[in-house]
Amino acid sequence: MRDAGPAVPERSLGDLDLHLLGEGSHRRLWEKLGAHVREVEGRTGVAFAVWAPNARSIQVVGSFSDWDGTSHTMHRMGNSGIWELFIPGVKVGALYKFQIEGADGSVVLKTDPFAFRTEVPGDGDPACIVHEPSYSFTDDEWMSRRSNATPLQEPLSVYEVHLGSWRRTPVGGALTYKDMAPLLADFCKEMGFTHVELLPVSEHPFGGSWGYQVSNYFAPTSRYGTPDEFRSLIDTLHGAGIGVIVDWVPAHFPKDAWALRRYDGTALYEHLDPRKGEHPDWGTLVFNYGRNEVRNFLISNALFWIEEFHVDGLRVDAVASMLYLDYSRKEGEWVPNEFGGRENLEAIEFLKELNTAVHDEHPGVLMMAEESTAWPGVSRPVHLGGLGFGFKWNMGWMHDTLHYFERDAIYRRYHHNHLTFSLMYAWSENFILPISHDEVVHGKGSLLAKMPGDPWQKLANLKSLFAYMWAHPGKQLLFMGCEIGQIKEWNHDQSLDWHLLDDPGHAGVQSLVRDLNRAYKAIPSLWATDASPDGFRWIDANDADNNVISFFRTDGSGKHLVCVANFSPVPRMGFRLGLPSEALYDEILNTDAETYGGTNQGNMGEVKAERVPWHGLDHSAMITLPPLGVVWLYG
User: Fold this and answer.
1) Is the domain of 329 the same as that of 353?
2) Of 341, 372, 393, the domain-final residue
3) Is 338 a catalytic residue?
């Protein structure tokens, strides 16, 4: 049904906007491009604006025009590449697309790259929806604290969540943002996590991509509700004291003809040369970071999530694929840079610009890199020659640790270096220790399934892994389901197996993770000195024959958190352990405690240090090490 009046040109972008867009420094493009409710000459309607410099013509089509491709022709703004049109009478909720006649003569219905909302993706190409935010946040106190945060010197324990499969309805459907908000907030608060990290929430056509192939960067996925309902989810989490990190994907985008690919009939967002513009692993397209407008699109999108949704951090996906021109490419399949090297100089500059913009505009916001190589200075400030991220995922620690834990205890002595090597480089970056979704998919099995032994030993190994991980220098990230000892591999279309908590062993794992988080947040030794080797010392890193390691953490206050781990199924009675001071140490955590499903072998709650030198320290004590267990002593 037609409900729109005659369209008129409307200049949404002024000269300064066009100048900033051209040089790639417009930080609020979402306020100018896309679809916005306006009043022009006393008439209310929607102003549409899109960047498509090589298009021959563009029509706005939608529910307001019976999808007629001839009635609303957009107007080109000089040589800016911007097309605009104001259509009176169009209201919030109207469906629309851009019909673009490309430079190649093609006529294609395209999505709006700056759309705030789309239809739920289905069999057809989803239309965009005119949307104006109306939600009022109630998190002023949280936002004020965030602006003064010093994340490196604060506890950070992250729960990674895929919104569509954390919990499902009784009939198997996905929960809405609205339904999920109180459940997720209460769960994370009870479990002691400081943050949730959401797998990508930007709209994506294929659910099986888990959100990593984005079509609409400025629209939260409609699968679970409206943008304002997503705002409410974040607001609810903030109200519970939980920060929100979102997975963000600037490395590539899908080839769907209705999305960004050849947007104006040319390679606009991507490179023309497939040796630079296509990603061989994922069958996707790579952004052209050398183009000012493309960098501007991505950086303004990062700021959009932080400003419009109060997101507390971005985890930038697949950074390694951005840094190297030959990433996953054979000889002859890539183009060297101007100096003949493999480094993607344009992507490097983009990442520096991105982090500079975020840190300038929003101090306290977390910027995290999933970077799997030894690229130097990922988390070093830009002015010191780094990429400027606040944190880097420690993929080396993850691979080595899982390599060790997957081995039967009788063979672990031959892999002891996999357990200790991470401390050789633990302070080369600001690290997060990630046990993420990537480790429980594609036939890898669940985290519990990786553990050797009978069912009891598998659970004991899992608990000891967590206690070691929480004591190790660095922040923590754990994918949903690991905290309950999920048995099956993760499936994005199914809920986690919450019924496992009816089993005392699995309930014990959950209780342990809760207590690890609570102890972690309460003990500054575990987080205040993460960025300095002064806060860590080995007690014994070389007891490979017994599968035992021991170390302590300190924050310089005179208090010490001692972690001693026995990764053998053999309990060790009368084990002498060097200790950093003459003190009465509280046994604040024992993974073998009965409450965690263990055999209750331990030290009766405390250990008294003696003046007996051991392990190069002036004091020591005789302790009991439980089988496949980790003990924390604090004093």
Assistant:
1) yes
2) 393
3) no
Q: Which residue range(s) make up the domain with 624?
A: 394-435+462-477+509-635
Give 584's contacts (C-beta < 8 A, 6+ positions apart): 606, 607, 608, 609, 635
3-class secondary structure per residue, 50-81: EECCCCCEEEEEEHHHCCCCCCCECEECCCCC
The per-residue pLDDT for range 86-98, each reduced to its tens digit, is 999 999 999 999 9
Let me know if residue 180 belongs to a domain: no
Q: In terms of domains, do 320 and 400 share one?
A: no
Whether pTM > 0.85 for this model: the answer is: yes
Give a yes or no: residue 158 inside a domain. Answer: no
Q: Is residue 75 part of a domain?
A: yes
Of 82, 83, 59, residue with least CA distance to 72: 59
Distance separating alpha carbons of residues 49 and 18, to the nearest angstrom: 12
Distance, in Å, from the CA atom of 496 to the CA atom of 487, rounded to the nearest integer, reads 10
Which pairs with CB-CB distance under 8 Å and at least 24 residues apart come from 272-277? 273/335, 275/329, 275/333, 275/334, 275/335, 276/325, 276/334, 276/335
pLDDT in tens, 297-316: 999 999 999 999 999 999 99
**Other residues' Cβ atoms within 10 Å of the Cβ of residue 37:** 14
333 assigned to active site: no
At 570, the amino acid letter reads V
Same-domain status, 518 and 613: yes
Q: Could you tell me how many residues make up the chain? A: 635
> Do 386 and 343 fall within a single domain?
yes
- Residue 492 carries which side chain, given as an amino acid letter? H
Catalytic residue among 370, 400, 483, 530: 370
Of these residues, 317, 371, 483, 530, which one is catalytic? Answer: 317
In a domain, 328, yes or no: yes
Q: How many domains does the chain have?
A: 3
